[in-house]
TrEMBL record, chain A:
UniProt cross-references to SUPFAM superfamilies, sorted A to Z: Aspartate/ornithine carbamoyltransferase (SSF53671)
Gene it is expressed from: pyrB
Protein's UniProt name: Aspartate carbamoyltransferase
Keyword Transferase among record annotations: yes
E.C. code: 2.1.3.2
Keyword Transferase set for record: yes
Known catalytic reactions: carbamoyl phosphate + L-aspartate = N-carbamoyl-L-aspartate + phosphate + H(+)
Name of one Pfam family that matches: OTCace_N
Residues reported in the UniProt entry to bind L-aspartate: K82, R174, R229
GO molecular function, one term: aspartate carbamoyltransferase activity
Cellular component, GO, one term: cytosol
Species annotation: Agromyces kandeliae
Alphabetized NCBIfam families for the sequence: asp_carb_tr, PRK00856.1
Enzyme class: transferase
Automatic annotation (TrEMBL), chain B:
Catalytic activity: UMP + diphosphate = 5-phospho-alpha-D-ribose 1-diphosphate + uracil
Enzyme Commission code(s) on record: 2.4.2.9
Protein name: Bifunctional protein PyrR
Keyword Ribosomal protein appears in the UniProt entry: no
Recorded name of the encoding gene: pyrR
Keyword Transmembrane helix: no
GO terms for biological process, alphabetical: regulation of DNA-templated transcription
Pfam families associated with the record: Pribosyltran (PF00156)
InterPro entries assigned to the protein according to its UniProt record, in alphabetical order: PRTase-like (IPR029057), PRTase_dom (IPR000836), PyrR (IPR023050), PyrR_bifunctional (IPR050137)
Renumbered ranges of motif PRPP-binding: 96-108
Keywords attached to this entry: Glycosyltransferase, Transcription, Transcription regulation, Transferase
UniProtKB/TrEMBL annotation, chain C:
Name this polypeptide is given: Dihydroorotase
Record carries keyword Hydrolase: yes
GO molecular function: allantoinase activity; dihydroorotase activity; zinc ion binding
Gene Ontology BP annotations: 'de novo' UMP biosynthetic process; purine nucleobase catabolic process
Annotated binding of substrate, by residue: H59, L60, R61, N91, N277, H308
Dihydroorotase catalytic domain sequence ranges: 48-235
E.C. no: 3.5.2.3
Family, per entry: Belongs to the metallo-dependent hydrolases superfamily. DHOase family. Class I DHOase subfamily.
Keywords per UniProt: Hydrolase, Metal-binding, Pyrimidine biosynthesis, Zinc
Catalytic residue list: D304
CDD domains (UniProt xref): DHOase_IIa
Binding site for Zn(2+) 1: H57, H59, D151, D304
Length: 317, 177, 448
């Protein structure tokens, strides 16, 4: 694997191989010495053009546990926000000898541009681009589902027949997009639930069922309910009347949560708006995987960095 | 291609190694056998069964993946990792016998010693291999050897095990090309 | 080199084969001609002779954005593409919203010598859409402005649009509208559809173009004015224009070469060379646009030549500028999409790329038929030359062409502007050679 830019172009075998490596990484996280010498001498740059402390520290922990040198490059407040181009930034990182670049960028496609421009030789990991994709989030979600379903027997398995309901702002969600493609690849059945204003205008090509009625989607007793964060700025865009109506119609409140089978996983990529898209009871329940998702995030990102950076350079996927 | 060990030879070699391990350890106390994936794991399990049968007590076997400790990762395509499975309550104070199919440069064993150190502090570490073909690049030697097989670097040694390959055999090929 | 040219054996737009004699800045004769004393003979065997091409929609960038293009480099690109006249859009800095700026633009064009530069005036002051610019003063200026446009921005306020349409009737002007509903296209990055949803790029819906065109044709009907629609890009827009024309509304419409050839699938690689406004659309739209150009619903092809410096395109998609250079490639793209596909003949090409744009813009001395007595504005095309479109084909200052690396048919072999070759043997001539030729021509006519 040369870069990890999207889940769209990830094959089933590659996805499962990555999840299996993540299992081995997770095992390392459970022992006293959590560090591996694997990427000693390699340099990973966290290039963040958007604030996201959670994602950055998750990648930072992953890289450090593989003994890579980590450079955090926050573009906010730096020369980049003063007009330095992505190209100049990339060439700076190249000159510094970056082997891997983890990029978070508000523009959809920016990681793709970085990876294909020829400005830099480093392997590129997309840590979230605009409203496009967030592949490591989808991988950690799949990893979390697989572990809850199959435990120690997870290795080598896909998510065949697992029924997943994703609820919220599909239109602007890179998490939703990455999950839709990956879950399809792994054999899961996806239902997307959102107000019609927050669904892209043409999703006929998406391997997912679109549903506007959350109660109907939940009545089918899905294996997984994934709640997405509602961004505050959506309130201004006339996507829905107000947060009260949103919470009432598309939130996982106490009543809806109580109706779910006890085996249904409740997922959220974080950070949560408690009381808006998810009620505290659901978020803090045994069914909630929120904290596992955070822990698994490190393992999955270790696996991604291992697969991108451990082999000889110039290898094509 | 010629066969250097057949199934019966292989069985005999493992039985001899099992006796040697018990003799050197003065019994089965504190023994843990850790195989290095992939074929080392199957060999460790076989050895553990034989040792257990001779000693009359259960000797545990597990797996020690050394991939992430290798010093040649950057020189090769990305390698798949394998699970590490340490039986029971770990290796602290135990005598660990590392088991692998072929001992060659010694680099795998060097990586295994590093991996082992991150798992805990073994009382002693021993090495058992089915075939020692020479050409060491590290000051490492095996404590228990099924067969010494002096070879040229151009030759390939193939170890077949029923659990992995469907049959038991050790063959050598490519020497005279 | 003499200042008269005998073009031997050219194929006229009608398909007839004829010799063409250019003398004293006019087409002196067309037919089977004897050698003319002193005339330079141009072998045009196998070449198509078209009236000099006229582009109703060019961004020359000067004054203000000379790092992208100047009047000199932009008209050089025009000549390379077979154009002899370009209408220069108003979004310069300062904006062409006063008589002073349009006269400056005109003078720069005269000095450049490669093509006639006809300035377009802004509809509103500073293109801000708030207050009418001095349309009358621009019309009465030496630049004789007849086309007004806020291109780049839509004249969105319906009352202001109505007033503009009415006002320019006084001097036979036309409003060229950039049809884009601003609220429906906030932050828009590409055509809205299945692909924009996948790529996570904010959508530019077809309805944002179609609703403005629908409003504007109704306004034009109501006040009895002439309306021109810039860069029509959707099948729905074609339907609206077709409906308006059937109703007798005085509307004309243009399509760009890139909307005749390229589709939104190219955006999938996030290569900003394909970022343009209006955006590349679907294959269904491309098919509808071709059919509409062939049946006359769309009147003309205009390039929307939009040069940008390299840094404006070497970046992430969101940050990249909209636009493509198009003058040098326009005729090749039209040949590929309309002629080679059998939808149009060369006479139609002469109509949509020369006669009609000159008529819409009320530009005299251009768009005249290849016949004795016409102005000597002429383009010779080798339609059999098929080649990789490389950067060597670009003659302007910028290289943001979406066609680099593509194979395109046709090559402009010669362009004559006011009887002087600006391109000869496929090479753009140096500006001092052209200036010297004009001087000799003026001397000759003074003596004659």
């Amino acid at each position: 694997m040369r870069h990890l830019l999207s889940t769209r172009d990830l094959s089933r075998d590659d996805a499962i191989a990555l999840l299996d490596v993540a299992e081995d990484m997770a095992a390392v996280q459970e022992r006293e010495v959590k560090k591996l010498p694997t990427l000693r001498g390699r340099t990973v740059v966290n290039l963040f053009f958007e604030d996201s402390t959670r994602t950055r520290i998750s990648f930072e922990a992953a890289a450090k546990r593989l003994s890579a040198d980590v450079i955090n490059f926050s573009a906010k407040g730096s020369s980049v926000s003063k007009g330095e181009s992505l190209k100049d930034t990339a060439q700076t990182l190249q000159a510094m000898g970056a082997d891997g670049v983890v990029i978070r960028h508000p523009s959809s496609g920016a990681p793709f541009t970085l990876a294909t421009s020829g400005w830099i030789d480093a392997g590129v990991v997309n840590a979230g681009d605009g409203t496009h994709e967030h592949p490591t989030q989808a991988l950690l979600d799949a990893f979390t589902m697989r572990r809850r379903l199959h435990g120690a027997a997870s290795r080598g398995r896909d998510l065949d027949g697992v029924r997943v309901v994703v609820v919220g702002d599909i239109l602007h969600s890179r998490v939703a997009r990455s999950n839709v493609w990956l879950l399809e690849t792994l054999g899961a059945e996806v239902t997307l639930v959102a107000p019609p204003t927050l669904v892209p205008v043409d999703v006929s090509g998406w391997p997912a069922v679109i549903e506007y009625d959350l109660d109907r989607a939940l009545a089918a007793g899905p294996d997984v309910v994934m709640m997405l964060r509602i961004q505050a700025e959506r309130m201004q865009g006339a996507f829905f009347p107000n947060s009260r109506e949103y919470a009432r119609t598309w939130g996982l409140d106490d009543h809806r949560f109580a109706q779910l089978p006890e085996t249904t996983m409740v997922m959220h990529p974080g950070p949560m708006n408690r009381g808006l898209e998810i009620a505290a009871r659901a978020a803090d329940s045994m069914q909630s995987t929120v904290r596992e998702q955070v822990a698994n995030g490190v393992s999955v990102r270790m696996a991604a960095l291992y697969l991108l950076l451990s082999g000889e350079r110039g290898e094509t996927p | 291609m010629r066969t250097v060990l057949q199934q019966a030879d292989l069985e005999r070699a493992l039985t001899r190694i099992a006796h040697e391990i018990l003799e050197a350890n003065r019994g089965a106390d504190d023994l843990v056998l850790l195989g290095i994936p992939t074929r080392g794991v199957a060999l460790a399990e076989r050895l553990a069964r034989i040792v257990s049968r001779i000693a009359g007590v259960d000797v545990p076997a597990g797996a020690l993946d050394v991939t992430m400790y290798r010093d040649d990762l950057g020189r090769n395509p990305v390698r798949a990792t394998h699970p590490t499975e340490v039986p029971g309550d770990g290796i602290d104070g135990r005598v660990v016998v590392l088991v692998d199919d072929v001992l060659y440069s010694g680099r795998t064993i060097r990586a295994a010693l590093d991996a082992l150190a991150d798992l805990g502090r073994a009382r002693a570490v021993r090495l058992a291999v089915l075939v020692d073909r020479g050409h060491r690049e590290f000051p490492i030697r095996a404590d228990y050897v099924g067969k010494n097989l002096p070879s040229s670097t151009r030759e390939r040694i193939n170890v077949h095990l029923a659990e992995v390959d469907g049959d038991d055999a050790v063959t050598i090929e490519g020497g005279d090309e | 080199m003499s200042e008269s040219f005998l073009i031997r054996g050219a194929t006229l737009p009608s398909g007839e084969r004829a010799d063409i004699l250019l003398e004293g800045g006019r087409i002196a004769d067309v037919g089977t001609l004897a050698d003319a004393a002193g005339a330079t003979v141009v072998d045009a065997d196998g070449l198509v002779a078209l009236p000099g091409l006229v582009d109703l929609h060019t961004h020359l960038r000067e004054p203000g954005y000379e790092q992208s293009e100047t009047v000199l480099t932009g008209t050089r690109a025009a000549a390379a593409g077979g154009f002899t006249a370009v209408f220069a859009m108003a979004n310069t800095f300062p904006v062409a919203d006063t008589a002073g700026v349009v006269e400056q633009e005109l003078s720069l064009g005269e000095a450049a010598g490669y093509a006639t530069v006809q300035p377009i005036g802004a509809v509103t002051v500073g293109l801000k859409g708030e207050q009418l610019a001095e349309l009358g003063a621009m019309a009465a200026s030496r630049a004789r402005v007849r086309v007004f446009s806020d291109d780049g921005f839509c004249v969105f306020d319906p009352l202001l649009m109505r007033r503009a349409l009415e006002y320019v009737k006084a001097f036979d002007g036309v409003i060229a509208q950039h049809a884009q509903e601003p609220r429906l296209t906030q932050g828009a990055q590409m055509n809205e559809g299945a692909l924009s949803g996948e790529l996570g790029l904010a959508g530019w819906p077809a309805v944002a173009e179609e609703s403005i065109i629908a409003r504007d044709v109704l306004l034009a009907e109501h006040v009895g004015s002439r309306l021109h629609v810039c860069h029509v890009s959707t099948a729905g827009s074609v339907e609206v224009v077709r409906w308006a024309k059937a109703r007798g509304i005085d509307v004309t419409a243009e399509v760009t070469p890139h909307h005749l050839l390229l589709t939104e699938e190219l955006v999938a690689g996030y290569d900003p060379r394909y970022k343009v406004n209006p955006p590349l659309r679907r294959q269904e739209d491309v098919d509808a646009l071709r059919a509409a150009l062939a049946d006359g619903t769309i009147d003309i092809v205009a390039t929307d030549h939009a040069p940008h410096p390299v840094e404006a395109k070497e970046c992430e998609w969101d940050a990249a500028a909209n636009g493509m250079v198009g003058l040098e490639s326009a005729l090749s793209v039209v040949q590929q999409t309309m002629v080679d596909s059998g939808l149009m003949g060369w006479a139609d090409v002469a109509r949509v790329l020369s006669a009609t744009p000159a008529r819409i813009g009320r530009l005299s001395g251009h768009g005249e038929p290849v016949a004795a007595g016409s102005a000597a504005e002429l383009t010779l095309l080798d339609p059999t030359a098929t080649a990789d479109f490389g950067v060597d084909r670009l003659a302007g200052r910028s290289v943001n062409s979406p066609y680099l690396g593509r194979t395109l048919p046709g090559r402009v072999v010669a362009t004559f502007h006011r009887g002087v070759p600006t391109v000869l043997d496929g090479e753009v001539r140096a500006s001092d050679e052209i200036a010297a030729a004009f001087a000799r021509l003026a001397e000759g006519s003074a003596r004659g």
